[in-house]
Amino acid sequence: MPRPHRDNQEGVIHHVVTRGNNKQDIFRERSDYFIFAEILRESCFLHPLAIYNYALMTNHIHLLVETKKKGSFSKAIGETMRKYAIYFNQKYNHVGHVFQSRFKSSVIDRNGYFFLCSRYIDLNPVEAGIINSPQDYPWSGYATLAFGKAGIIPLEFHSLYEGLGNTPEERRLSYRNIVGPPLVPSQQSKVAQRFQEPKSSACA
Q: What is the second-level CATH architecture of the domain 13-193?
């Protein structure tokens, strides 16, 4: 069966998810998060992508990105996964695949879904029971978007985020209100279903 086509057009926003093979941990030590972040930054510079949010979980990754140059999306994400897999295998003397299949991606085609997706990413560590509040998780973009603190991956601000207020503090407060309490089941399933819809750019 042929692989589903990825939308590599300029200006398309994607929610990217990739998981460790057989649900194995892909981040074992603190330094692994920094190495991944460095590889991602370099790849997104060479193959222009804007990063709007992220969550680096122990055994999977969420990214919210926009293609800034036609064809750059698959190149940037694919290169990041390949280089990190080489690093991981060498460091831990690991043999075999680091990631489970190809990364999955869902196109963000509605304004309302942009914030639902970003909120889903921020609350992933909370839903996993790792922390009680997204601001306590050091490996996501929440602290940047909600409090203006620098994270391990520098973010760009989408025009939708910029429209949340007239000043940085107004935007941060508005974003904190958007993220708010944990997701209800219907919101969780809405995001998850995007990776199963035939018309999305999901790839199993």
A: 2-Layer Sandwich (3.30)
